[in-house]
Prior knowledge:
This protein is mostly helical.
Amino acid sequence: MYMFKYILKRIGLMLMTFAIIMFTCFVLIKLLPIPLGEGLGQDTELVKAKLEARGYYDPILVQLWNYVVRIVTEGDFGIGTTYPGYINQPIWDAFVSRLPPTILINVYSSLIGVPIGLGLGIFAALKKNKWQDQVISTGVIAMIAIPSVIYAFLIQYVLCFQLKWFPIQMEKGTDYFSWEMFRSMMPAVISLCLGSIAGYARYTRAELTEVLTSEYMLLARTKGLTRGQATVRHALRNAMVPIFPMILGEFISVLSGSMIIENVFDIPGVGGMYLTAITVLDYDFFMLLSGFYTLIGLAAGIIIDISYGFIDPRIRMGAK
């Protein structure tokens, strides 16, 4: 019962936070000048007439009401006004068409990064203060300190340009599960998963090291369990309690993608679309993509919090 109330409360707070953020974005955007696509070969008078027909020149609160009503009743998130290639086209269709590459490169990076990161963290904890631990910890610190965009450029130069293992940019087309498409995604996937590997390794090492020095581990050894048996049966299970929710949050947030990495490797995903929408001042695109990233971030946080109560029966979220 406590958990049910807690979930409802968190969902309510999430929706309220989402509404406040989107209201703020909408108002601030509407205070900016309305772009008419000058310099893009458009008939500005025609664009102005279309925007006026959609209520772009009404008072801000009226525009907000009409915007919400159109989304709820018609699923209409607006049309492209200045975004090259999507002018006068429904932005929802453009968004859906660009979503698969973003999902795939982040799912692949999670599937690669999670087992490697956990494995390195476990190995470092078992070899605490030995040379293996020092090497892994130094590598983890370096990977965390260096921005992912630096990895991207290094991977492009070494793996793509010098060794020619992968193409520099992602293959064109929509055959996302072909071998050539998968191979062309790998540079972006490797760039994304390096940071995840470092984060998982550092967190796993810290948690497992603390568990291995706890009193119940000493008790397990005195009862006759070997070090390996005590580690697998007790240490890993307890260390995973705070780590597993982080992994769940990672899988939930894969939709958010990586805007910079997508631009570096020319991934036709949502991240690149977001940056372009900001650059060309296409407000409807910006609103949809801002709502998407905000909702994914809030949902990932809720999933992480709620999962603690299901993973560890001792935790009762919302109980006094």
